[in-house]
Amino acid sequence: MSRAFYQSKGFRWKQPAMAVLLLLFTALMAQAVLPLGFTPVPNTFALMGVYLTGAFLDKKWALFCQVCYVGLGLAGLPVFPGSVSGLHVISGPTGGYLLAYPLMAVLIAYGLERWGRGIFRLTLFMVLAQIFGYLIGGVQLLLITKAPLDAAWQMGVAPFLLPDFIQALASAVIAAVVDRVSRR
Questions:
Q1: SS3 category, 44
Q2: N or C: more exposed end of the chain, with fewer CB within 10 A?
Q3: Hey, what CATH class is 3-29+42-183 in?
Q4: N- to C-terminal Cα distance for the chain?
Q5: Which helix (H) or strand (E) is 178 found in, with range?
Q6: Coil, helix or strand for 43?
Q7: Residue 40 gets which letter from DSSP?
Q8: pTM score
Q9: What is the pLDDT of residues 9-56, one digit of tens each?
Q10: Domain residue spans in the chain?
């Protein structure tokens, strides 16, 4: 539902409830994994959870939701892609991507709060947030694997451009439809 609905008088409890649902959705979607043999970075649908977190929650709750997701994984709950957890995942080659999730959700929420909603803006802010995720994740991938820059690009960004864009577009469509339905 639209952010205005959640923030309207009498519905302030919806942000925390939605944060819990989106945290669970992110954890569930992270289990849909397509491993690629040439890279340690799996292709996963967890980004849909991150994108929708930014679309449906304000900045504070978006940050809280995705920090809790990362925290649950650090605490040992198998919420990371492939049902894994722990500090070794965060400190490994894919950890930077996971650490980027809270900031990505905040960037989406901030962009939508500042410049408004709509399918184009939803998609734009989701794609911009993903570029930020590639930067954080790619840097950690480079540092851990000690691969040259072009090899890191081939392992951590190039194979994910189209799938991640499709997830952003699908998430934007879902958010736009929910916005439209909630206005009625």
A1: strand
A2: C
A3: mainly alpha
A4: 11
A5: helix 161-183
A6: strand
A7: S
A8: 0.91
A9: 555 778 999 999 999 999 999 999 988 888 888 899 999 999 999 999
A10: 3-29+42-183
